[in-house]
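Q: Convert this sequence to structure tokens.
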Amino acid sequence: MNLDDLVSTSAALMRQRLGARQPRIAVLLGSGWGPLAEQVQDAVSVPYSDLPAFPVLAIGGHAGVLKAGRLGAQEVIVLAGRKHSYETGAADGMKGVIRTLAALGVQVLVQTNAAGSLDATMPPGSVMLIEDHLNVVQMSPLVGEKGDSRFVDMGAAYCPTLRARAQAAAVAATGQAMPRGVYAWVLGPQFETPAEIRMLQAFGAQAVGMSTVPETILARHAGLRVLALSMMTNMAAGLSSETLSHGHTMATAQAASARAVQLLVAVVQGLETPT
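A:
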């Protein structure tokens, strides 16, 4: 089957599982954000492997399970894990997922990730609200698409209205706004060199990571609005004496997870439910 057929099949299977639920918000969980899935109430769990448009995941910390239920009054779909471009060399690993969400009527995608901090005012454990991104890789998940719709306007890739609501929720929950910044997408899987970090700082980035940008492009192409948060798991190369590794990233993410997830719950509950 082609991708459109896989998406149609996946959406039909999900409609059966959802029953009367009509979630308009989806939350994509990156490394360290997994415990949010445990807070979904009245949840229906669907392994990615049951949905033919969804990818097979092979990265620690990404469970590969979809949960549909409630976070407070919000009906949501929570996606535990993503396919990274460094696994295949292609940027479209989450295309089937995003298009299935759109087919189900989802209108808002809330993304999360683990990132390296390029800003001394955002130490490990901080959560940054993404205002914009740098596609350093200069790859697109829309390569091969046909027609004029492939030329997607990215001038407001991260919805200003959603960002304002997220900040209001953060202030109400914690007494302070989240730091804001630009997220730079690099391919990986290797970590960056100190020289590369200096380049990204010169470009205006405050955080760097190996995900999120392809999904944002796919979501905007599908007509979804996007909100995104980065959890800082380390200072980027050359900004501290740490030796970077995936194990270190996961350990730091786990230590910061409870606070970050609590903030994410408040943010999602504070979003206006789209109609």
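The longest strand covers residues 225-235.
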